[in-house]
Structure formats: C-alpha cells, structure tokens
What we know:
By secondary structure, the chain is α/β, with parallel strands linked by helices. The protein has helices spanning 20-28, 47-53, 61-65, 87-90, 107-116, 137-156, 183-194, 207-214, 225-228, 242-256, 279-284, 329-344, 362-367, 383-392, and strands at residues 2-5, 32-36, 56-58, 70-75, 96-100, 119-122, 164-166, 169-171, 175-179, 198-202, 218-219, 261-264, 290-293, 309-313, 316-320, 348-349, 354-355, 368-371, 374-375. The chain folds into 2 domains: 2-134 and 329-399, Rossmann fold, CATH 3.40.50; 144-327, Rossmann fold (3-Layer(aba) Sandwich).
Amino acid sequence: MKVAIPRERRTGETRVAATPESIKKLLALGLSVHVESGAGIAAGVTDAAYEKAGATVEPDAAATYANADVVLKVQRPLAKGEGDVDEVSLLKSGAVLIGALAPYDAADALKLYAKQGVLAFSLELIPRITRAQSMDILSSQANLAGYMSVIQGAECYGSPLPMMMTAAGTVPPAKVFVMGAGVAGLQAIATARRLGGIVSATDVRPASKEEVQSLGANFIAVEDDEFKQAQTAGGYAKEMSAEYRAKQAALIAEHITKQDIVVCTALIPGRPAPTLVTEDMVKTMKQGSVIVDLAAERGGNCPLSKAGETIVAHGVTIIGPANMPAELPAGSSGLYSRNLVAFLTPMVNKEAGALAINWDDEIIAKTVLTRDGAIVHPQFAPAEKAKPAAEKSADSPAEGAPPAVDAPDQTGAPAS
C-alpha cells in the first residue's frame, strides 16, 4: 500500500506528518512511503534524510497523491479555491485520509471528502481512554504549546523570571499566572517553575488542584460546594452557575493585578473560547506585563487578543499565537508523526498487505468522519442520521463541556 506525505500548504504551517523515524516504522508495516519534495524542510528534515530512511521522494503534489491508499496530513488538505493546489481532488476514491481535519471549523470540507469517496479520520476526536494516549495529537501538541507560551511570555517581559541577586541589588522573580490546568497549562506551570518564576494557576476542575500543587504552584479558585462537584466521572468540566462564575471572576480580578505574565489555555472543541481575562482586568494589570493567549484562534480567553498578532493594550503586551506548535516544528513534527503511526498501525494487516479496519473499535468509531460517500460521525452528520448514535455516545454534551483543551493546535492547534 502506498502512504503519501504531502507538503503542508496552509499559511504558517511548518510541521510535517512524517519524520525519518516514523517512516522506518511505516516501512516495517509493509507500507510504501512517498514524501513530497520539500515537505520536511521547515521542520529540519531534508529530502535526502527521507530517502535514507527508505521513502520515495516525489517531485510535486500530483505525484505524491497519485494512487495513494493512505494520506497522512498535519492540517486538512486544500480544497478548490483555497490555494495553488486542489488537494482534495487528488485523493482517490477509497483513500484513507488521516490528520487534524478541523471538523468543527470546516463542515464544507466533510462534504467534499464524502463526495470524493474518501475515508476520513480526524485525530482531534481521539477519545480520552488509556489505549488512545499514544494517538492523542491534542495532548502531544498542547504540551509544546504550553512550553512555548512561557518562553514567548518571558521574551516579551522586561525583566528576568528568576530572582537575580547582584552587588547592585536584587531583581525580584516574575509572577506567572496560568489559567487552565490541562496539558498545555501544566506544561506552562512546569516551564515557568524551571525558569524561576513564582507560579500560580486556576482551573474549574477540582482534580486539577493536586496536579497544580504537585508542580509547586499555588492553586487559585473559589473552593465552595459547587466547585467540588464541577467535574464529571469522565473527567470533563461541568458548566458552572452564573453565581459561581461571578465569585471566581472577582477572585481572579484581584489576583491578576499582581501578576507579570498571564498564560491563558482554556479552549473547548467546537465552541468559542471562554472569556477569562476581561478588558477591565487588563486595565488593572501592571504596565509592562504580558498575556499569552493560546486560545486566540477561537476568539481568545482575552477579548483583546488577535490571532497571529502581538499587540499592546492599556500598557499590557498581548500575544495571540495562531499556531503555537508550528513555532517548534522539529519537536512537534516528531511527536505528531508518532501519533499518526500509533493510530495507523492497528489498521494495517501486515501479512495481507492491506487495511483491516475494525469498525467496532471505539477509537475508529469516534474519529471517522466520512465513509462510503457519506458523513457518518454523529456530531457532523445530518441530524436525522446523527440522533441514534448521539443517544448512545458516552461523551454527549449532556455530560458537560470538555475540559480546557490547551490549544494545538491545529493543531493547529492545541487541547487536553
């Protein structure tokens, strides 16, 4: 079977869906791997490195996609009118497309996959079960996003993070406040602590308190009876009452005035980012302080954030990264490509040299978008078709909103 690794063409995307390491694993499955020339350059991987690993380097997109049985992507392929190449039209009928396909934001793309006869899997929808952890692109990319958020915040802040003691006097340590203790948030906490900052964090899930404290940070939350019940058995955050949100906002408003760097990570798949830092809060922050908003792509946890831009408002620098994992293309590509291999491996019958997809597998059922010319995922299929599946879903909205996702992504961005 031919596996295609096209060059990513969406603006700002520097990652690639395969590395020499992952290619060797794909070859061990009996697959033939074809990489478009230049696909890995931004991630530090040359065509020669791919060839040395055993892949065939193709000159262009058409040759790469031609007769491909499986296509591995970072972001969804370009459709007609989106760029210089109509990648969707190059997918053959029956081909398997695997990647971060952004189904919440690209409903029209799902219709195109179905019309093209593509079997599309979106890895943002990987279920939160132990067996799927190695396939979880949101977590792998969010980890790097959390790290990079502190690095970028420290770069913009006009003083060092650790305390500096010199003959001329002492420079106090920076105070770093992390909002959302999912994967990105916990990595941000750990990074800020390693750099010597005084770190505090908040999250609506009670279980996050212990995680935050285990990293040496102070936990900030209104810990009343409602807070203690704010998490479902599946680990998801419940919608909080207006009264609780008001109390929590008052506490955060008081705390944020003393902070030097604020990292916002709260993101819920398929929904606008919740507002955590209001403009009134920004006005109370110290001159020269910094906000890094990892949710900027979905409207931001701060309404002043602008995706892909760094602005200054009320004396506060607000960073709104558009695709934070792409800031670390080598590391993020390495993790992402391992996620893809972990997902694809159970689908391949090595002895038969063919795909053998177990449609009863929970992971398959929750990630497949299109099959046999139709949109089949219950969240995105036409309502009359989706209802029976939705009623059976253990992760239906009735159980509560997902926890802070910590943006990839997409991974583009990152969630947890």
